[in-house]
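Two quick folds needed for the group meeting slides. Do the first one here.
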Amino acid sequence: VTAWLSEARALRPRHMRRLAFAAAARCSRRAVSSAAEVSTSFAARGAPSDTIFALSTAPGRAGIAVIRVSGPATREVLRLLPPGGTRRGGGETGSHTSHASLRIRHREVLPTRFVCPTTGQTLDRGLFLWFDRPNSFTGEDLCELHVHGSLAVVKAVLLALGTLSPPGGEHKSGGVGVETGVVRHAEPGEFTLQAFRNNKLDLTEAEGLGDLLRAETEAQRRQALAIAGGSLRTLYSGWRTTLRKAHAHCEASLDFGEDDEIGNDVFLSLAPIVNSLLCELRLHLAAPPIGEMTRSGVRVALIGPPNAGKSSLLNALAGRPVAIVSDVPGTTRDAVEVGLDLNGHKVLVTDTAGARETNDAVELEGIKRSKQHARDADVVVLVVDGASMSGVETLPKWAMDTAHAVVLNKADLLEGGVEKNDWRGILNPLNPNLLAATTLSLSCATGNGIDAFVEWLRVTVAARVDGTAGDCAGICAITRSRHRGRLEECVVHLARFESAAACASGRHEVAAEELRLAQRALGHVTGHVDVEELLDVIFRDFCIGK
């Protein structure tokens, strides 16, 4: 409202001043009327949170373990679990320092003893770190206990935290078998959930942080770090701000229903702004799915006739016997998947059932799944027996239509070399699409040609996903189907706005509503509208201490 009042003072034309003041009033009324829509999200964010604790480092024997505590009662942890005998500047004093006299500052580190609050027994010596709200990661008072990483020490400190009682009292029973103390054990991702509720990050940043914790390759690390740092938040928030301002103009013009000229002028002036945003969103959606491929992995499917050497090739790539190899046709009935790291990119290679005509019900189901894997794969490799070309004539059309490369296996069995074997004369008449496929020859038995195949796969994967950590055509990459679905919904509403706004009169209310719905769709991505039902899904895959 204040922004609209400032804009009104700066505008000279009288009707535009009236328009801006009306926008301020109408925005206030809209905020009240739409409160029910967003109440769950923002009420949940503003709700008092529990004080929680958890081990933030990996469990097991280690040099150091970090235990994190966050919430409104974190300072009570300082009082009830005293870092005994501390003094600033390092070391320990000869006498115990009381809690009341200890004034710990933001980001201060204290060397200390950790003692059991009930027995006074020393549990360990370590470091105590303090972060004031709202400048901590969670937005709450937060402390970290850095202790030695033995199982016994960690167990003792966690037990001491869990048995803390409120000041001047014992544990209060919250029901049969339920104890309510000062702090409680955190749920998976609950520290990050606190940060979200306190507006320290939005849903895209929370999802990026989750991806960073699960990152296995360099490309995944770069992409997740960029998103956790706010790359998507900045982009989507900018779009949402544009929509919010355009929507406010629309609502203001509707307050002057008797002045059609002003209303028409406003909607016409917004048309190029909305059209520009619509073009950006369509470009964003039309970009190759490199973000999703980097996050989930590039899928490579090995397809072909039985006994062509698909399982042997998978074992050679994995460096271990992950798939059963047999001379009996149809040994592979179900898909076998192996994850690889090719120059920082996650690659999922799948060995599929041999494609052939059969009456075996189980094998038919395996072939059906092979077809689905070929359709879903980003890269399809057709593996054939380069020595005998057996089974090639009966290959189904889908197996040859989808192939990006043809691998001639068993090259060691060819007397005159692969170039003397007229494989093209056999395959090309069956499917001319194979002319565009890359051809490689190798021998899984001797290892010859494996390195060349891996290099081809590395280059192919890199061509599909390079640039993911940055962007595509200047726009950050989409990493989740949830984002894609909401952005597509936003595009639909913006297209409907253009149709309604182009009408001379009578559909301006409809156009304004479409802008509101477009803004709401974007808000679902970032968490600015009711997304409570998504929170469990997003945060349940986090580790306990995050």
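Then this one, please, same format:
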Amino acid sequence: CPDTVCANCPRHPSCMKNPQTSTCNSEVAVAPWDPLGAFWRLFSFAPFATLTIVTALTCGTVWTGWLETDVLRHHGYVELALFILEVTLLVCSYLTAILLGPGFVPHGWEPSTEELLSLNGDTKKHPLDMPIPLDDRLQRCGRCKSLKPPRAHHCSSCGRCVLWMDHHCPWTNTCIGHSNLQAFFLFVHYVPVACLHSFLIQSEVPASIALMLFRHQHRKFWKYIRRVHTLVTLILWFASLVITLLVGSLAWDMHWSISGNITMVEELIVDKAESRRCRLKQESFAFPYDLGSDRNWELIMGKHWLTWFCPARAQCNGFWPPLRKGSHPFDLSMEQLAQKAYKLSASFIVPVKKEFAGIGNQNCCCCGYFWCRLLCQFGCGAACSGPLCGEPHLVVQPGDQVLASHREAHWFFGRVDTAAEGTEGWFPRDCADVDNIQKCQVPHQRQMQGEWRTSRGLIIKVSSILVSVEETAAIYILKEEGGFTKLLGCNLEHCDGQTARWSNGDEWHRQPDTEKGKHSLELEQEPKKNV
């Protein structure tokens, strides 16, 4: 790394912390390494328990295969070296996954000016003749208070946004993401290989027991079964079988994730995208980072054969990964924004008329005190259908407006309108003013439904608060700010159901064939009066 701080240098720590020079379009850009976080991850209970299990299985296998003389077959030193090599690679991959960490998004991250200039696409296919604002292209984390790269997701256990988050692994005490994905992939493959080898070696003990029973050598059987070595070996033999099956199934899933260059979180996003687009009859969603199985393997595991077997640092850009042909860097993040907007459009605004401060410990609702207070305050119905253990309560005051996304017979789930995302919880229906529940809408939403033709000749389809352009897969969102409907930062100045005029000078005219069904989607989503 050169001594001078340069926007084109992704490996320099100060480049990563500066919001204006945080990442670049280079081949490799990784999140900065946190040595203090690595120390706390390593010296915790999960690594201690994991390494203890590995040590026990290793010692038991060596004892049975090479130190115990009463065995069915002889195990040579070549097999011993092979087994030690498997365990060594397993431990190295495990420690690398812990020490590297998943790659957290730096606090205050945002794309640099150079990045935005290089990533801005052609505005000819946008619904308005305007560049897309940053908040319409990237998600903003309500907990970290910063923007998220397209493949980043917030982990509630780590309390940070993680690049390429796959899942939170309790055995590594951290998430699996961009920086440690390759090391974790090797770890979950070396575990079933080493455990299967251990299982085969220790299988000689149950095989000897079965042979004694078959030959009716009962005296020898009882003497053999009472030995400490026999009992310990049987326990480790069963443990190695269970670990092989459990971790082997995870390794199989990870193999398909690597071949498709898609994480577990992104699989859920793609499934939701296909379901939503099929329901709204929009263009199908193409995952933008699937480059083909061979290219995906090289991207994550590296091009050199040595990195296919030994753990190493990430081999690709974690902020702006390579894209498949025809995709845009913001396709995935804009799809997630569209999913949140679609969920919001199906929500309703619930006024609060009675205070609810939460009852008992929200992390454990199994105590009798909790149910007694719930029964006394809100009746038998709320007590019998209350939230499960660990589900949060929402503290509300009279006059609050709650955006409710789910409802049960006696409970609502949502967040206070002025609160940030991630603060959702349950509150009783008796606290809500059910007679004044309203649908969550933007101004002129009903008049905007249907197909429109822009002044530039584009065909626009509006479904709920989602806007799409014909022959494109991108989704744009209608927002409400200051009492106005906004799209791409422009205000809707006039809409009478036939003509829509925007503050940038663009005009939309309704397509004549969509007049009959322009309110169909809105009518389908109207809440029942007796909620």
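Slide caption for protein two: The radius of gyration is 29 Å.
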